[in-house]
Amino acid sequence: MAHATGNGRQQPADRADLLLDLVRRLTRELHPQAVTLPEITLDSLLDRDLGLDSLARVELLNRIEDTFRLRLPEQVLAGAETPRDLLRHLDRGDRRPEPVVRPGPGPAPVGMETEQGDLAPHAATTLPEVLAAHAAARPDRLHLLLETRDGDEPLTYRDLDHAARSMAAGLQRHGLQAGETVAIMLPTGLDYFFTFFGILLAGGVPVPLYPPARPSQIEEHLRRHQAILANCGARFLVADPGVKGVAGLLKGAVASLERVATVAEFRGRATEFTAVPIHADDIAFLQYTSGSTGDPKGVILTHANLLANIRAMGQACAVNSGDIFVSWLPLYHDMGLIGAWLGSLYHGCRLVIMPPLSFLARPERWLAAITRHRGTLSASPNFGYEFCCRRIGDAALADLDLGSWRLAFNGAEPVSPVTIGTFCQRFAGCGFRREAMTPVYGLAESSVGLAFPPPGRGPLIDRVRRGPLVRDGRALPAAAEDDTALQFAGCGFPLPGHQVRVVDESDRELPERTQGRLQFKGPSATSGYFRNPEQTRSLFHGPWLDTGDLAYIAGGEIFLTGRVKEIIIRGGRNIYPHELEGAVNDIEGIRRGCTAVFGATDPETGTERLVVLAESRKQESRALETMRQQINEVTVDLLGSPPDDVVIAPPGTVLKTSSGKIRRTACRALYEQGRLTGPQRAVWLQLVRLFLAGLAPRARRFLRRSGEYLYAAWCWLLLAVLALVTWPAVVLLPVRRWRWRLLRGILRLLALLTGTGITVRGRDNLADPSILVANHASYLDGLVLAAALPVHPAFVAKAELAANPVSRLFLSRLGVIFVERFDFEKSVEDARRIGELVRAGERVLFFAEGTLQRMPGLLPFQMGAFVAAAREGAKVTPIIIRGTRNKLRADSWFPRPGAVHVSILSPILPDGDDWAAAIRLRDRVRKEILRRVGEPDLATVYTSLAQMDIERPEQEQEE
User: Who's near 799: CB < 8 A, 6+ residues apart?
Assistant: First the structure.
């Protein structure tokens, strides 16, 4: 509650809190669908950060005056850019009697940070700042619980901070300098957490390495780590006592490595720690990729990258301090390190963690921990869920209660729809809800997470026709009775602030349901690979980063189909290794999860051969022949022809990454070097057949690509020619109705000549004058509506279009209304002008999103159209445009063939004339458009211009 001084005035701190509460309430009203609001501080920009347009700021001014019992001049709000600017003027206004200290009008806040138990330190810019904030605010709060065979080991924020300072002091005593790398080869345990943060506090850069699982693997692991240590130039290696001696052998092989020691040997006194300046753009740690398709590369991740990713994942999953994350994931892997531990640390939620070997020995321990601690969040690669289905017996199910588990993340490797179905069915009786299963997508180059589905939606499985996908990369929906259909699990939508696209070999964006290379960009993205400029250059394609994955997008959702380097092209068809591997794994005698399918180069002919490598404990000749025959049969069933070679090898032959993914490229290298034995077949007849079969797909791809370029050139040529006729005619014709008839005819001719079919439904809904509100998906939207609508409305356009005299004259002659998006005084005048047109019976057309973006999705609606409708009592007619985004995306000038559909819905009347009525009207109109537009709801993600990556005009000019 605010306090008042003796003269009836509130203290400055109270006024600030009350003002921020007003801003939060208004922001929540404007964005009710948002999972979480952006952080709101006194320095938040009202428009860019909080999404308050000019009319929303008028409402804010009214609430400030009502709450503080004073009157502010309009120019105060016109010039105010932040709540702090408003706060400075509160003592200068004409004060009304009897100050009021309760919040202004509007509904009670729903899901605000305080009610959600949001303990995240939003102001923190580095990981040490996150720990320091928690240690200062809640030192005795339980941060994590380590489950061991000897019992649970608790760790509070105070304990972590103190132990990390001790480790930092020891590293400083040994001469660690800011920016130097320190390798960590430790198992899951409290020492790992102390060491990681100790390195950070000392200004160093942690480099997680995975320790050997068995003593027999030590030398093999160290040989692989030698290249990593040489690349990162580590001076120190913190090792577990069990491997310290052997790890010391690396000192002779890595020139930079000076000391290999245990945590106890490095640790010093916390009081001796000297704080080191750490900045947001400093490297937080190097995440060496596991190398499933190549040699490990050191992904550079800054503090800013990590915090952006953690915050975005938290927003997408509605994480708060009441959540409990249960994890068995290794800490040297990004999913366990960032997703489980650092994410829990930031959001202030409890982490229950166990060593990976505890899970692998008895997978029921994972689910038992979720039961015992009432875990709400947990994650595993797909094999973990499959492992539970195979290894947990019926007797153990009776003791499991998984009803608290709200998000079961499934990622880090291909997600199997079969595994999803089996796990959901197997554990449904234990309270596990199918909607908790959450396939996700991420990669080290995006810190860890990139795409998440809406929380609680459950898995979305897409069945596509096999033939078109393997031949042409078209992911066409399959009929229910199609037994040969391929199935892919949807991995959700890009995290807030991130974007993805699917492109062809020329980096041109592909339409939906077309397979291509998946690229991304966003604040979580790495700046490159450490000391590896060649690989960094191949990673970046302009501002976009190549994931190395193949995917298609349907309804805005990402569907992964495989790794680019692992797809095998045989006879013009794409072969997906994981599908055949899954079928081989089901053969009796084959070790599940120990099959690698890859294409290998024939040393004599240089052509690619399909090889199946599988592990089996059975090595008798009869058993081997039986398994080989069964592998041939399942391959023929799936692909129509047998593999070129089948190698059945003893356990341990198939190479895997630290996270358990099959290293197909490494297996291929061993095979081509002759280090995997297997029968060699004569293949010259098959090579001829494959070559001939591959000619047609190559020709189709060439013709399709050529056709796309020709089509784009034809479109622009037509537009240029028709524009030369249209512009002077529109400018010279004396009557507006004539201008519109001419424009409509020319645009319909343009659509006809470019093969763009325009379908319009609901023309009868335009019989009476109304305000028209349409979604905005492409630069083509205005042209499409001008061609499709039987009326000539007054389009509302951003004032920036009037800056060019050529476009200003042309658009003005058509009756376009230019409005200011950022200038308060001018935008208020624009609102009055629009109101006059509405009263005069003019049809005014708004693109209510106020902007557009290249990714599918309906953005939040601005308030202008709805305030005008409420004040004037005018109907609002929703209009839905579909197809223009695929024809010409934002930020692209490459048109593609495709049809466009326009749907005109029944008008909606406002139920009042005040601000609340305008909000209700906006929500009703947006709901109707969202139901039919076929794109995701981005109002749950974007609430501000900052999140949409949109700058003010003056900021754009400065840049």
Answer: 818, 819, 820, 821, 823, 826
